Amino acid sequence: MKKMKVRGKHVVLSLVCLVLGFILAFSYSLASTDESIQSKLTSGQYQKEDDLRDQLIALQEKNSMIQKELYEKQDRVVEIEQELSKEKQIYFNLAEDTEKFRMYLGKTGVKGQGLKVTLADANYKPSEENVNNYIVHEHHVFKVINELYIAGASAVAINGQRLKHNSYIVCEGPVITVDGVQFPAPFEITAIGDSEVMSAALNIVGGVKDQLVNDNIVFTEEKKQEIILEPTIGES
Q: Where is the signal peptide (predicted)?
């Protein structure tokens, strides 16, 4: 009976050892498999991170190139705008000069403030030998016109007859001929410009007005808020 009990214990112990060995072997196998899988996953992740990093670097370099190109194009746009601004100013100046020339040629109507100067013959004194000493001559008219232009007049007319760049004035007895059109005295000279400046230029001491008065010419002037001068007709 004792021998059978001992053998029974050995069998049970062997079974326990066998089960424990199987469990340990299975656990080791699972652990090895998990480590392999983890190793493979970690390696794949590293590769993916490297790929993403390379893509990011490539995108940053491309973005830097595009940004540099954008700055270059912006600089070029600024240069073009500056060139256009200069051209615009040149065209504006040309247009302004053209308008001045057209005005000078009498090809365009003008209006603005200005001055009206009237030159009239003085009363003749029978005791005087020469009646011509009491009438307005072309050189009197020329003095007024020249002074008005010097004072900044942009357009001038005599009795409504607009003066051009090649106008001529001729004295024929008691009348004056302006570009072939005769006008009797008094002669109204109208000029567009700064009336204060033109008046001051004519009234300077020893100036045009004093000279005309000394020649027995009746000199009057009137500052006008608006003077309208029509363009000349025909060839200029």
A: none
Pick the CATH number of 111-229 from 3.30.70.1880, 3.40.630.30, 1.10.150.130, 1.20.1250.20: 3.30.70.1880
**Residue 79 — very low, low, confident or very high, per pLDDT cuts 50/70/90?**
confident
How confident is the model over 92-133, as pLDDT tens digits?
777 766 666 666 666 677 889 999 999 998 876 655 666 677
Q: Is the peptide bond between 126 and the residue preceding it cis, with omega within 30 degrees of 0? A: no
Q: pTM of the entire structure? A: 0.57
The answer to whether 138 touches 176, Cβ cutoff 8 Å, is: yes
pLDDT digits (tens, 9 = 90+) for 134-186: 888 889 999 999 999 999 998 999 998 898 878 888 888 778 998 888 999 89
What is the 3-state secondary structure of the chain?
CHHHHHHHHHHHHHHHHHHHHHHHHHHHHHHHHHHHHHHHHHHHHHHHHHHHHHHHHHHHHHHHHHHHHHHHHHHHHHHHHHHHHHHHHHHHHHHHHHHHHHHHHCCCCEEEEEEEEEEECCCCCCCCCCHHHHCCCHHHHHHHHHHHHHCCCCEEEECCEECCCCCCEEEECCEEEECCEEEECCEEEEEECCHHHHHHHHCCCCCHHHHHHHCCCEEEEEEEEEEEECCCCCCC
Arithmetic mean of pLDDT over the chain: 79
